[in-house]
Amino acid sequence: MFAPATYNKSSSRATSSQAHSHPQQLVTFTMATQSSKPIVLYTQTTANGVAVSILLEELKAIYGGPDYESVSMSIRNSDIGNVHNQVKSPWFLEINPNGRIPAITHNGFPVFETSAILLYLAQQFDSKRAFSHDPVADPQGYSKELQWLFFAHGGVGPMQGQANHFNLYAPEKLPYAINRYLNETRRLYSVLEARLEGREYIIDTYGLADIKTFPWVRRADVAGVSLSEFPRLKAWVERISARPAVQKGLGN
Ligand SMILES: N[C@@H](CCC(=O)N[C@@H](CS)C(=O)NCC(=O)O)C(=O)O
C-alpha cells in the first residue's frame, strides 16, 4: 500500500546534472500515500476541498470513475513538524508547492489549485462534456466556463475566506476588515444573483462553475451573509444540494 511514488518530472524543474541530460527520466519522491487508485485527492472538508470531491462523485455517477482515494490533510499550523499529513510537510510541498489543500495526483502527476484540478479532471475524464465545455469544439462555452471559474477562484473564494476569518477567527474584532470583506462578499453574491435571473445554473447547464462556487455560497452564514437577501442564489444552492453526487462529495 505505502510505496514511493514516481512521476515524470520535466527538465525545467530537474536539478541534478543527470536529470538535465535525461529530462524524461522518472524522479522518485516519497509521498505519504501511494495508492492503487489512479487519483489520490489530498483534502479536507473545506469549501475548496469539497469542490473536487463533488466533481469526482459526479464523474463516478456518469462514467463509473475515475476511482479515487482521499487523504485527509491537517491544515492546522500547530501540526507543522508534528503530523505527517500536514499541508506544509516537505513531501506534500512536492505535490503542492503552495502547501494547501486541495491537490491531486493522477497516476503520480500532481495538480494543485481547485479550479486547475477541476479543469484537469474534466479534460481527462468528462469525455461527454457533461459538466464542462470543450475548448476546441465549444470555445465560447469554454471561455464562459473560465470566466466564471476565475470569478469564483479569484473573487468569491478569497473574499469570503477573508470574511470568514475576520468574522470568526481573528483574535481582534476589526470592524473595518469585517465590513470590507463582508461587503465585498455581498457584492459578488449580487453579481451571481443577477446572473441567475432566467437561468438555473451559472452557465445555463450545471457544471464546473457551479461546482466551484456552490461550496462557498452554501456556507454564506459563516461569513455573516444571509441567503434570504439573495433568493435566486438560495434556490440555486437548494437545487445543487439535491444532487446525490453532491451529497456524496460533501461526505454525507
Ligand atoms: N487558491 C487555493 C486556495 C486553497 C486554500 O486556501 N486551502 C486552505 C483550506 S480551504 C488551506 O489549505 N489552508 C491551509 C494553510 O493555509 O496552511 C485553491 O483554490 O486551491
UniProtKB/TrEMBL annotation:
It holds the Pfam family GST_N. Gene3D superfamilies: 1.20.1050.10, Glutaredoxin (3.40.30.10). Residues 36-129 form the GST N-terminal domain. It comes from the Eukaryota. Residues 138-252 form the GST C-terminal domain. Residues 1-22 are annotated as: Disordered. SUPFAM superfamilies: GST C-terminal domain-like, Thioredoxin-like. Residues 10-22 have a biased composition (Low complexity). Coiled coil: none annotated. InterPro entries: Glutathione-S-Trfase_C-like (IPR010987), Glutathione-S-Trfase_C_sf (IPR036282), Glutathione_S-Trfase (IPR040079), Glutathione_S-Trfase_N (IPR004045), GST_C (IPR004046), Thioredoxin-like_sf (IPR036249). Belongs to the GST superfamily. This is GST N-terminal domain-containing protein. It comes from Phellinidium pouzarii.
